[in-house]
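Working notes for the structural subgroup meeting. M.R. asked for a predicted model of this chain before we commit to crystallization trials. I am recording the input and output together here so anyone reviewing the notebook later can reproduce the run.

Input as submitted:
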Amino acid sequence: MASQRIPLVAGNWKMNFDHLEATYFVQQLAWKLRDIHFDYRHCEIALMPSFTSLRSVQVLVESDNLKVRYGAQAVSVTSQGAFTGDVSADMIAHLGCSYVIVGHSERRKYHPEDDANIVDQVRAVLAAGMQPILCVGESYEERRKGIELDFAVGQVHDVTRDLSDEEASRLIVAYEPVWAIGTGMVATPQSAQDAAKAIRDDLSATFGIHVGEAVRILYGGSVSSKNAEELIGEPDVDGFLIGGAALNVDELTRICQLTMNATV
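Returned structure, recorded in token form:
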């Protein structure tokens, strides 16, 4: 990856861990990272707990002065009002969150969230002073047709085309081919690099090279300690959005270590 971009390892816990399990995990992770002398200057770590665990994680991080960051898995496009079950960006920001995942394939599939809704979510997250982690990626069918790069770039472009240069520079993109999420299948390092470069080239063409080079592009989809080193070695892959492996503290620690080592 490019040296001017600090890599990010983000763990998406999805619907796992209650608030007690979440705090215990964060404590364990902090201890293990301390034991290996982890240098947060060379790699950023963020965890995305469920809404019910965010306050507990915040209290732990602030009371123990931990350097692990955290964020939310979803956000409402509305700021307040009669929207039962919704959580606004301002509410999330007031819990000290740095990031919000937007447009994850599971949200697109099960809720569903369309492109217009995802654009509004990105704007809401940016307005609240946080960074959106925009998830994009093709299904097996798009890949079979050979249009995977056009599809992923199109998803990014649909969101960014109305953003300002400053807003676009704060975006984080997670390329997650849908066929690789939770399946054990993983994109080859070259495939991940091809997608990341195509996305970066589109951002550079739309906003200028200064924006294209600033945006961090993560890979997600069956990331593990067995493939992380090869993936992070690609010049346009700036870290990971991890699902299953982020639920195992030893595995997550190892991925963080491998990512950090790639920058020093």
